[in-house]
Structures are given as C-alpha cells and as structure tokens.
Design goal:
38% helix; metal-binding; 12 strands; 461 residues; Cytochrome_P450_Monoox; 4-stranded antiparallel sheet; alpha+beta; binds protoporphyrin IX containing FE
Amino acid sequence: MQQYESHPFFPGKTPTSRLSMTCARWCTSDSASSPTTMTSFTGSALTDTDSGRFASSLMTTQVCIVIILSQSFHIGYLKEPSRNGYGQSAMSAKSAVSSLWPKETHPELRIRLPHGSPICELPLAHTVILQTKGAVVDKEVCGKGSAIATTAMCMSLIVMLLEKQNYLHAEIHVSVHWEQGGSHLFGQLCVQEVISRLSISCPAESSVLIYSDKVIQERKESLKDEREFEKIKKKRHLDFLDILLCAKDETGAGLSDEDLRAEVDTFMFEGHDTTASGLSWVLYCLASHPEHQARCREEIKDILGSRDTIQWEDLGKMTYSTMCIKESLRLYPPVPGVSRQLSKPITFHDGRTLPEGTVTAISIYLIHRNPSVWKDPSVFDPLRFSPENVSGRHSHAFLPFAAGMRNCIGQQFAMIEMKVALALTLLRFELSPDLTNPPRKIPRIILRSKNGIHLYLKKIP
Ligand code: HEM
C-alpha cells in the first residue's frame, strides 16, 4: 500500500497514516494491475469477510451500491494540478463515475454529477448564513451574539438578519468556496468568518490550514504557562485539543505538529460542514411542511414553557423534532456517500469478486431512498422514525452517520447541535420556502444545494 504523496484535502501536506483519518481512507494501491473499470451492483446478502464487512452489512438492505474499480485518478489529480487545483485525470474519471449511478432505479434516485465538474472536486467551506439585503444585524431576533448554532470547534455560524417591515426574508446559503476566502459569495462582512469556518480550498496554503495552525500554536503557547497547565490537569473533561496536546506515546513523545494538525483538520471538516448541511436541509424540510413545523414548535413550546434557552434534559423530550431531523437526514444525508478501499478481496453472493485494493463507494443517498425499504421514498414523513416503524426496519437502512468501526464519532454531538439550533429557530420564526427558487441538490463530499436554500422567516411575536 502506498499513501498519497500529498493530503487529498490539503495538497502539499503529507498525511500521517493513523491520524489523518479522512486521508487514510483515500490511500491507494501501487499495484501495476490496478483495475480501471467500473461497475454497479444492487446487492443483497453477501459474504462477511473482514475486508468487506462494512459493504456487506450495507448491502443486506438491498440498496444500490456503486463499486468503483478505479485507483489511479486520485493520484493523478494530485500529480497534475490544473489551474483550479484539480487534475485532468480527475476530470475524465468524473464522466465515468457519473455514468455509473444506477440507472435502473427510480428517476428520483439518480444522482448526477454536474456537467463539467471533476469527481475529485473538494468541498469546502460550507456554511449556513441567514442573511438579508443590507448589513444590519438584528441581535434580538437571533439571541445574543447572533449565533444559532455552535460547531464542534466552538465557532459560531453567522446569523445576519435585517428586519424588513415585519417580514424577514432570509437566504440560507449552503455554499462551497473554491477559492481562498470566497469573499465574492458573502461579501466583505463575512469574509473573516467564512475563512475561519473552513475555507478548505485547493491552494497549498489554504486558510483552514493557517487557521488550524493558529489554533494549535496559541493553545501550545498557553500550555507552556504552568498555571494554565495545572488548570487543565484538574479539569474533569479535557477539550479535544488539550487531549491531543497532552497525549504521549509509550516513549513519552507527544504528537508532532503535523499529526496534531491532521487531527484538528479532520474534526474541523467532519464536524462543521456536515452539521451546516444537515441543519440547512432540516430547516428547508420544515419550511416546506408547515404541519410538521407547527407540531415541532408546539412540542418545543411545551417543553420549554416560559424559558427561551434549552437545557440538557429538554433534548431527550424533543421526540417529534428528532423524528423530523432524522427524516431530513434520510432525504438529504449531509454525507451522501462513503468509500472504502478493500484490504482483502471480497466475494459477493453471486460469486463475483472484487480484488484487494479496490475502492468501493457506497451511496448513503440511495440507501435512504431505496423504494423496497422506504415506501414513497421521496415523501417527507417523520413518522417513519416512530419507535414502531424503526423496529421493523433493518438497522442499516438509515445511515446518515455511516456504520461500522469508522462511523461518525460526532453523531451524538451533531444531533444535539441540530436539535438546539432547530428548537431556537422555530421558537423565533415561522419558516416558509421560496417557491420561486427551490434548492437544486448536488452531491459533493457534502450534499448541498447548487443555488442555496432560500427560505422566508417570519418573526413570531
Ligand atoms: C449531521 C452531521 C454529521 C454527519 C451527517 C456526519 C456523517 C459522518 C459520516 C457518514 C462519517 C463516515 C465517513 C466515512 O466513512 O468516510 C463521519 C465520520 C466522522 N465524523 Fe461525522 N458527521 C456529522 C457530524 C460530525 C461532527 C459534529 C463531528 C465532530 C464533532 C464529526 C466527526 C467525525 C469524525 C472525526 C469522523 C471520522 C471517524 C473515523 O474515521 O473513525 N462528525 N461522519
């Protein structure tokens, strides 16, 4: 096995094998006989080999799985960067991949990669911004500090609202920044925030790297102060970065700066864009389904009473809202697919095999819309997640956070984030969709809307 010469998300940076989890998944085989064709399967029962355990368990739900037997294009794109940072080989691989999304499925199930964009297109700063024309920030309507959600790394999502008579028109942008800064999309006001929120762009010195470095260096410096160090030792729960900074191996050596950054980058990326996407789509779903929105609001009001803040115990009582979040994650899984490289060959139930080293891509999006598992799959129906309905379904029919050993370690946190953000938003606003501008979803590493998600927010007196 040979690893990337460079980190796939952060070109110019060498990944470390264990620590940079995202890139570890994209390591590739150096076998000269790398397979180069692609096929798609609709699988059922599979043998449970170690190498294919993840794929097997998913396929028992009879879903469409795209198996990509191609190993060269990722390396290629790194070796031949084009002007925008993506290689030509990536461009050609894209058309092959897009032709492989299962065609026999319901038309709704097809995902097409947008014409002219490379398969290796890396997502990047993906953000939720509530914004109106003008620049006045109405703190009152969104609570102190204007944050409706806080991300894994304690960064706030910007909320900028301008009251327009009694009616707030807010656009929720779910955007990708291809170039450093991405300031053209959000205007000067947001640039700093956007940069700090993962502008993981292709140029080698992308801003997220600078940001991660800054966070690490500042914390390292403060830990040199003995008093600060003592304080940390007494803490019952250490912050993520403190755990990393204090970690030592058996020889007493700590993590290198590069290892530290690989960890921080992974969390920044995995923990931010995903939740931003999840939250955006759930707001869209509820805006489009006022009856479910009203039921969630009633539930939240009943739980909170006269309070306008959420407490830990409240979260467990948000039964209906949680069902709505799950239904939105089903229809719009923020991570629409995952991939694995087989460390051993795998044999399918029908005798077909895949060799070691094959990169297999599993479409979570399609799993969630499989008509043999989900009746009327494109209908938003939160009751699918009532305890009775869940008990009758395969545990892998719903996989927004993937499954197996490398599933999402932030899933509880993400659910909490989304519940809090949803509850506080619904308490303050009535949401409705902008029917003239419906979202056009496009699958990248994160599922997003090409044209943003446009909603109307009416302030609740
Ligand atoms: C709605 C929000 C989220 C969704 C849908 C989501 C989804 C996923 C999925 C599908 C994976 C597996 C990726 C793969 O197998 O290639 C994953 C991995 C991961 N997620 Fe999340 N995630 C979310 C939020 C978060 C948050 C808030 C954090 C951090 C606090 C986080 C941290 C991670 C990490 C570190 C991994 C890699 C785990 C490993 O490789 O062992 N995620 N996530």
